[in-house]
Amino acid sequence: MSDLLRALAGEAPERTPVWFMRQAGRSLPEYRELRVGTRMLDACLTPDLASEITLQPVRRHKVDAAVFFSDIVIPLRLAGVEVEIEPGRGPVFANPVRTADDVARITQIDPADLDGTAVAEAVRLTVAELGDTPLIGFAGAPFTLAAYLIEGGPSKEHLRARAMMHADPEAWNALAGWLSRISRRFLEIQRDAGASVVQLFDSWAGSLSTADYRAHIAPHSKAALEGIGLPSIHFGVGTGPFLADMRLDGVADAVGVDWRMPLDEAIRIVGPDTAVQGNIDPAMLQAPWPVLEAHVRDVIARGRGAKGHILNLGHGVPPETDPDQLTRIVQLAHGEL
């Protein structure tokens, strides 16, 4: 069993497993060279390209897991929703979902009909190259997908999405329930093709109150993961006020923690039965190595009190990161520095 799987199972591996969110690409020159002339969503759905991008950071950094190269809006595109990634902005939807009629229209699409052929082939190609290194499949959580769909693109406060929960709870639950099934189907495609772990990303959950998260979000996220048959990690940004709820009643094997909360405090909140992932501050990657080293050692030390600890960033790798900084973090976690 790999160190990552041991940590998720609550067994103490000899060395702290480490991987990085957004490790596939962004900061790597070999990624930027490979992506020239290819739009983001097209790259995600080109099996040999998606596989190669997934493998690049494993070769360079010697991380303990690969994370499948994709985008959280890919399952929506596979469902026939018109979406594009605008450089410098993010996902943009041609037809936002803002009314009960919009919800009724989009939820007529059966999540079981997602054509996952390209995704499954990319996963199979990747797993064949990884050997004993596990592949993490992932999907966006229902709220984050809904926030994009309802706003029509990126937003800071996600006011329209949060408003729908209260203005039309029936439409909200229909949409969030459908998105939960979409996310689950995307995870199942990756699982069936050979992924060893799954992670559910809720990038925008931090805009929610604790009450709204518990009432309107957690049940749908739980449905996306429950019974998936693989170890699971649930991650959100800004979720400190409801971190215990991120366990999804014990469905999640590990909870990802962002950089805002000391990891030992997070461990006290999630309790002894849940592993944790995190939580290096991404901003520290720009610091001189001695400063970053001290920070990473502190995170590792705080993580020792958990059922299991997977070292990671508290969010994604910034594009301007020096890749050598990431390699050094891996070497430090593995006891090579």
From TrEMBL:
Chief location: cytoplasm
Catalyzed reaction equations: uroporphyrinogen III + 4 H(+) = coproporphyrinogen III + 4 CO2
Superkingdom assignment: Bacteria
Pfam families per record: URO-D
Site (Transition state stabilizer): D71
Keyword match Cytoplasm: yes
Biological or metabolic pathway of the protein: Porphyrin-containing compound metabolism; protoporphyrin-IX biosynthesis; coproporphyrinogen-III from 5-aminolevulinate: step 4/4
Keywords (A to Z) from UniProt: Cytoplasm, Decarboxylase, Lyase, Porphyrin biosynthesis
Family label: Belongs to the uroporphyrinogen decarboxylase family.
Quaternary structure and interacting proteins, as annotated: Homodimer.
Stated role: Catalyzes the decarboxylation of four acetate groups of uroporphyrinogen-III to yield coproporphyrinogen-III.
Protein name as annotated: Uroporphyrinogen decarboxylase
Organism from which the protein derives: Microbacterium commune
Gene name tied to this protein: hemE
